[in-house]
Amino acid sequence: xxxxxxxxxxxxxxxxxxxxxxxxxxxxxxxxxxxxxxxxxxxxxxxxxxxxxxxxxxxxxxxxxxxxxxxxxxxxxxxxxxxxxxxxxxxxxxxxxxxxxxxxxxxxxxxxxxxxxxxxxxxxxxxxxxxxxxxxxxxxxxxxxxxxxxxxxxxxxxxxxxxxxxxxxxxxxxxxxxxxxxxxxxxxxxxxxxxxxxxxxxxxxxxxxxxxxxxxxxxxxxxxxxxxxxxxxxxxxxxxxxxxxxxxxxxxxxxxxxxxxx
Length: 262
What we know:
The structure is a single chain. By secondary structure, the chain is α/β, with parallel strands linked by helices. It has a single domain (5-259), classed as NAD(P)-binding Rossmann-like Domain (Rossmann fold). Helices cover 50% and strands 15% of the residues. The chain has helices at 5-8, 20-31, 43-55, 72-80, 105-133, 154-174, 192-196, 209-219, 230-242, 245-259; strands at 11-15, 35-40, 60-64, 85-90, 136-141, 179-185, 225-227. It has a 7-stranded parallel sheet with strand order 3-2-1-4-5-6-7, sandwiched between helices. Strand 4 (85-90), helix 5 (105-133) and strand 5 form a beta-alpha-beta unit. Helix 2 crosses helix 8 and helix 5 packs parallel to helix 6.
C-alpha cells in the first residue's frame, strides 16, 4: 500500500514544511492528489512553499506556528475548520549539537517540546477521527540516532527514541481500526538544517530528501518502521542486532565526535 487520497486524504497535515524533508513531503503528497495543511515557524519559507504548490494546482492552507507553544493541535484545527485530515506527518524537529552540559536546560526543554510533546498532542488530536472513520495514516519522523543513546545530540536522540516507541505502539493499537502508522528513521540527509550544523568527517553519502520521502510513502501501510536507505539499513542491522548495545553506543559516540569535534 502507498499513500492514496481516498485512504489518506483528502487533507494531509505536514509539520516542519518550509524546507528539507517537510517541503519534500508536501511536494510528493501534493503530486499524489492530497490537499495540504503546511505548518512551520518560518513564515517566509512557508509562504514561498505555499506559492510553489499553489502554482502547481495544489490546495494549501499555511499555518505559521511555533510547535513549542501550548496546544499546537488546537491552533492547527482552528485553521482547518471542517476539513477532513486523513494523513498526519510529524516532521518538525529541533536538534542541539554538542555535549549535553554545554547547552542551557531551557534549550533542551524546547527540543523536548517540539520533538516529543507537540507530536504527542498532534497525534492524539488527529488520530482519533481517523480511527472513528476507519481509515487514515500517521507518519512519525524518528532517526537512526533514536535506536540508542547518541552522544553530542542527546536530547534529540532521546526524543527520537520516544517517537520510535510511540509509533510502534500506536500502530499496534490503531492498525486494526484501519489507520496506517509508520515510523521513519533516516540517517544523515541533505537538508538545510543538517548542512547548517557544518558536520565534519561524514563517513558516508548523504541521502536526498526526495529519496527518504519516496521510500516512506511507499512503506506506509506495509510496515511499522522504515530505516530509509539500503546502507542505513545495513548499518542499523549491525548496531542493533549483531553488536552489544554498549558497543553500539560507543561506536555512535566515536562517529559523532568525528562529525562534530570540540
